[in-house]
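hi support,

uploading two proteins for the ticket. first:
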Amino acid sequence: MVCDEAAIGKHFNRCSIAHLYRNAVTPVRGWSTLSALDRSLDHIMDAIAILTGASSGIGAAAAEQFMGKGCAVINISRRDCPVAGVETLSTDLSDSASLTQTCATLVARLTEHSGTPVCLVHNASLMLKDRCDTTEDDALAQVLAVNVSGINALNRTLLPIMPRGSSVLYVGSTLSEKAVAGAYSYIVSKHAQLGMMRATCQDLMGRGIHTALICPGFTDTTMLRQHVGQDESVLASLGAMNSFGRLVSPDEIADMIVWAHEHPVINGSVLHGNLGQVEH
């Protein structure tokens, strides 16, 4: 296989190109050996992954995978990311002053590396146990601040300086398209994220920046475990609600996130990762 770097570059971001080059059978035009190609990977793989909520669960798993691909990774959350090499910008997404400071830092980072593709992953979420007939305005506002308004602030700040080959990925939920009892504000916010993704797709037409909504099913995360009160019997029953009889792992959703960034053909898509959820 002979690969033309210029032709490939029109359709793939730099991380994708690097993966393709590493697996090429015949050296890429312009390199005489694969070892010479490997010496050029640092240039090819320049990319920045910015993830909210990468201190644990799906976000941490995705951060680790992006690091493994040679991308610079920035975590936006109140707690540090446990993955070595990830930079954490301590941020409270529900606090406008904290978010404004983080946005300014991110603008400086992206300006310093102008032209570098960016993967912006909106992963952080706040989930309360609440209902439509009892939820106070302040509680709803708090959830929307983290799950919706924080996304808007990051998009508004970063999208104008994100180059072609970048992506904006929303981590929604099965509850982005359906509902259950007892998670009112979370469901409202996840439905809002679906609308945000679709609007993002339309507003960025022609920019060379793609978007998607990744919708995990019941995933073995700290947030889910806290929501069910660490009750293993409840977790087992949730795991039984799909074709494979187990919870989804954070790594499986991280795989989807990285894949979605590397494949702009899915622009505007809703991608479900729930192992085939049982419908009632």
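and the second one:
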Amino acid sequence: MMAVERHVPVRGELRFGAPLAGLTSWRVGGPAECLFRPADLEDLCRFVAAGMGPRPYTWLGLGSNVLVRDGGVRGTVILLHGTLGGIQTIGGGRVRVGAGAPCARVARTCARAGLSGASFLAGIPGTLGGALAMNAGCFGAEVWDLVESVQVLDGQGRLAWRAPAAFEVGYRRVRGLRPGEAFTGAVLRLRPGEAAAEHARIRELLARRGATQPTGASCGSVFRNPPGDHAGRLIEAAGLKGFCLGAACVSEKHANFILNTGGARAAEIEALIRHVQHTVEDRLGVRLEPEVRILGETA
């Protein structure tokens, strides 16, 4: 049984030595020195303002774009999925969304409300907070295309709203968060639509994703697409489709996915990422940059 610190004035769950593998889509990695799942936004603000838990703070949603190394993560991992998950329509085609809300649920909620423009979010296997942090996208659209304003939490536990102009946003890149800050929510602006049509669009996009992307334990796309090309095409052209290191394998269905085929270690996945980078660069002269965030310590 993991130790639980009970004397701190928070309502959420605080654990030490908490395993993280089950909280990531690759199902690998060591424990968090400390794991905090806040009860709500007020609880999170109180935790940060009081400086509870060891630093640094690492923010985690659905764990779909991260590789946690086998040695685990020092400091405190703050888990937003299941806590900052509110989605509320507020009029004028605007929707307020918490950073812990799964993108797929945001897409479905907007469709039910007869709002158009968010259907592509159904194809993003993470939370809105993670999507904001990296400008996630698919099917030709990106999350910051929808953003009217974002809510940030600073290192003293204070909340503020900022306009997109405060950030430099590019392909899978967002700059402008100050040290110690994290996204806790956003207001999205959408267009009027028709609920049935939006649900049909979501089904169409998910069918396209199912036809082209593998199922199984992966992080989603591993590498950013280089300008004018696709990482998956380059990896396949380098002859790496199906290549494995231990139980970590480049997908036969889409080469920009690496699968944990059962019992892989994070070290095997990371080694395969580096092998793909080096091989594509050696054979094709293109340096692929990882889209996935690699966290923590080697074992």
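thanks. also noticed: The radius of gyration is 19 Å.
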